[in-house]
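Extended Data, panel c. Modelled sequence:
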Amino acid sequence: MFKKLANIATGMFKDGERMLNRAIDKATFKRIVYAAYLIASADGDFDSDEKASLVKLINRDFPDFDTQDIMKAIQECDDKIAFDKVLGTQEIVDEVSKSKENEDDAKRVMLVCAFIGKADGDYDRDEQLMARKICKSLNLETTDYGI
């Protein structure tokens, strides 16, 4: 199972770099950051090191957006979760799910989720559960993303 997941992730990485390097609009960018936030915080601990790693990844793959844009989107997520974790999470998923209107954008969101999930070398159970939830909200096949 792990070998299959590793092979899927390797293939997604190659395809993902090609897809991620395309220009995106501000709404898609925000949804990507929201999805990445959900994956990074799935274990209940989203510390400043993880936030810095997320900012670095997003800056690398989406250079048209600056760190302030990323920080603003992360803060919006923090505020939603701080108000109510369950409602805030659902509101973020609902926003991310709007990317299903464009299949390329939906796939782009899931590729970022996969990258974030693998960033620390351990795509743990909570991250995979959140990735499945996001994937289903985007009307994508979870098996295409190894989850």
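The chain has a mean pLDDT of 84. This feature is highlighted in the accompanying rendering.
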